[in-house]
Amino acid sequence: MPRGRYSLHDPHDHTPLGEEHFHCATGPSGWRYVSQVTTPAGDHAGSVDLTLDDLGRPIRVQLHAGSWQVRGAALDGVTWVRTDPTGEHATEGNVTEARAFTGASPAFYVALSRALRLTPGAGATRIRLVGFTSPVLAPRTLDQSWALVSRTAHATDNGPLQVDAYQVSDLETGEQHMVNLAGDVVLSAPGIELEDLDSPPSSFG
Fold it and tell me: Around Cβ 26, how many Cβ atoms within 10 Å?
């Protein structure tokens, strides 16, 4: 069960946005990721609780940012309920063509790689997503393409570590970036740096 800490920053001007303290684990029925998000001053800013089934589908998503909350799952595409800070109003949403959720948390990169299960050199795959980002977790439907550029084994004290390099493209803006994953841990991505990890990443097999 890897535990660690990501630092978060603005991918354009590198302004610090805080940290995400996480733990995650694989199991016979899928994968779960739980984290607490803090501000640069160390104050609580939100949380992420994401559970995938063995096919990489989000069977439970719960996000908090400030006083906003989103709960969602893969149901008729993806379905969610967003609750306002007062707790008096909740709005439901559904996008039947979407396959998964996304957001600022590194968890979503792992989840998408698991759902797509790409092979190196196989070309890009298009996916429709519903994204939620701080501070108000407003939903946005977007299309991305993912391509697994390379899969490289790196020697470590605990044996070979397989690193997958993905090229992710925003199909609305044309912006591209690289995401490097090792098992269920993000090694690097725009706005994300792995700072601490207390045990090797888990392998999905």
Answer: 20
Name the phi and psi angles at 16, rounded to 5: -60, 135
What DSSP state is assigned to residue 159?
S
Alpha helices in 27-175 (DSSP H): 107-116
What is the Cα–Cα distance from 20 to 50, expressed in whole angstroms?
14
Cis peptide before 135 (omega within 30 of 0): yes
Residue 186 CA neighbour count, 13 Å, CB half = 29
Q: What DSSP element (H or E) covers 193?
A: strand 192-197
Tell me which DSSP letter residue 200 carries. Answer: P
Contact between residue 152 and residue 165 where contact means Cβ atoms under 8 Å apart: yes
Cβ neighbours of residue 195 closer than 8 Å, sequence gap 6 or more: 4, 5, 6, 7, 19
What is the pTM (predicted TM-score) of this model?
0.94
Render each residue's pLDDT in the chain as its tens digit; 205 residues. 899 999 999 988 999 999 999 999 998 789 999 999 999 999 999 999 999 999 999 999 999 998 999 999 999 999 999 999 888 889 999 999 999 999 999 999 999 999 999 999 888 999 999 999 989 999 999 999 999 999 998 887 777 789 999 999 999 999 999 999 999 999 999 999 999 999 889 987 6
